[in-house]
Design goal:
By secondary structure, this protein is of the alpha/beta class. The protein has one domain: 3-Layer(aba) Sandwich (Rossmann fold), CATH 3.40.50.720. 40% of the residues lie in helices and 17% in strands. The strands form two sheets. A seven-stranded parallel β-sheet has the order 5-2-1-6-7-8-9, sandwiched between helices. Strands 3-4 form a two-stranded antiparallel ribbon.
Length: 237
Amino acid sequence: MSLKDKRVAITGASGTMGRALAAELSKHGARVIALTTSPNTSFSIADRDNQDNQEIEVLTWQIGHEAELRDRLQKVDILIINHGVNVLGARDSKSIYKSYEVNTFSVFRWIDLFLETVTEPKQITTKEIWVNTSEAEVNPALSPLYELSKRAIGDLVTLRRLDAPCKIRKLILGPFKSALNPYGVMSADFVAWAILALAQRGFQDIIVTINPITFIAYPLKEFWRSLYFRAFSRSPK
């Protein structure tokens, strides 16, 4: 898969992983669109030919108002859904609602919006969604609500891509240092490089972690969940 001249939109673009992905994508010639909930955020990436900083397009959005960017998604080739929240050890009702709204329901709304743009036969092979679900799908993340909300969206993506009109990849990422994960040990730049390297080689489930258990536990979990969903759910008419 070539990323040159692909229009790639990234949610959570102002975060550590979002910025790392934007920089790595630019090295491959992609045209990056930064989707951020942080107003007045600026981005610049180094042009791979002359190393000058190049401004990228920035679009601001808000949780619950994803549909306002529906028309803009029409011209996007790849949507990387990367935003999230980690309330760490909190377990009050407000934190529960916030975790599921950001990590689960907002992500799923983005998926549905993007899939609505796949209307032509050629778009089936050219459009893609990449969802950062985290290895919290199968491993502890030392944050119960983060784990629960990420596992929920992980299962929903598994269910949704049974009938999706275009490819949906999962990003199963281990602990990288960021504001969301103070326990991270990997470099975000390395993780971003590995994501693109594996995506270009055709992997649908992209696992980047230092934990060997994930390479065994996740494929098993994904196989059985997918089989279960196929057996006990129906395709839409």
